[in-house]
Amino acid sequence: MQSMVEGARRQISVQRNERGRLMPDASGSDPGRRAGPRPGPRNVFGEPLAECCSNPLTGFYRSGSCETGPEDFGVHTVCARVDAEFLAFSKAAGNDLSTPVPAAGFPGLKPGDCWCLCAARWKEAFDAGQARPRCG
User: Fold this and answer.
1) Cα–Cα distance, 59 to 66 (Å, whole number)
2) How many separate helices (H) and strands (E) can be counted in the chain?
3) Phi, psi for 9 (deg, rounded to 5)
4) What share of the chain is helix, strand, coil (3-state, %, to 5)?
5) pLDDT score for 41
């Protein structure tokens, strides 16, 4: 059992910055930080994460910002203003963002709304020429 644990530890790769310090992951978790009070979510520049939208309330955690964490398998980290063309593209690609789902507390999006999109879905739209400007 001990050798399995050691083998798993060796397989874990961490990224370091130019000073050799451990880098935070996408969730804002900083592997080099000691336990204690944790700062709020951060963007890729290490700054506090700005609000994306509160009406409709967006974000994987419905906090209004595009913070992510281990439960967010879709990595909802891109805040974008949607338009009719993007909503149609997303629906055709299998992700209907315009139809309300009251049971899930989802109001459905309208053109002009900002929303935290899955990074991979936004990239797919970008590659197809359908990505919309990010909000913020």
Assistant:
1) 5
2) 3, 2
3) -65, -40
4) 25, 15, 60
5) 81
CA angle (70 as vertex; 31, 48 as ends), nearest 5: 65
Give per-residue pLDDT as tens, 16-58: 555 555 555 555 555 555 555 567 788 777 888 888 988 888 9
DSSP per residue, 79-95 = EEE--HHHHHHHHHTT-
pTM over 0.70: no
And the tokens for 48?
A: 């506090």
DSSP annotation string for 42-55: B-TTSSBPPB--BT
Instruction: Return the closest-CA partner of residue 136 out of 43, 62, 63, 70.
Output: 43
Whether the CB-CB separation of 48 and 82 falls below 8 Å is answered with no
H or E segment to which residue 7 belongs: helix 2-11
Q: How far apart are CA 58 and CA 54, in angstroms?
A: 6
